[in-house]
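Entry 14. Ran structure prediction on the chain below.
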Amino acid sequence: MNATNSLRILLAEDEEAMRSYLERALTNAGYDVVAVDRGTEAIPFLEAEHFDLLLSDIVMPEMDGIELAQQCAEISPRTKVMFITGFAAVSLRASREQPQAKVLSKPFHLRDLVLEVERVFADQAEASL
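Output, structure tokens:
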């Protein structure tokens, strides 16, 4: 069993095709993934369960990814945050408002996503040594 098997990711992405694509890639990479289609749907999961990473689209209906990340910081401060977005201006706002969060811009290869997720967890492992 490799180290990724115990790591849990909460994926919030409103676009169905992208959500299933990302969920499949992360599951294939060995992560335990829970996928939701909006930020407001992610909150109850954050309150009820532990996640190592919140992977969120920034532009979503009802609650955007930045607002979701702020809620996540209050509910589950140890959960890391990574954003995905297709909008450069939104990416700048995310960097300003959530400086500790990684922002991955669309389009990206699944391989790049998995590498970035691995990097977040590698940094976390080093920090806990």
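The first helix runs from residue 16 to 28. Will compare against last week's run tomorrow.
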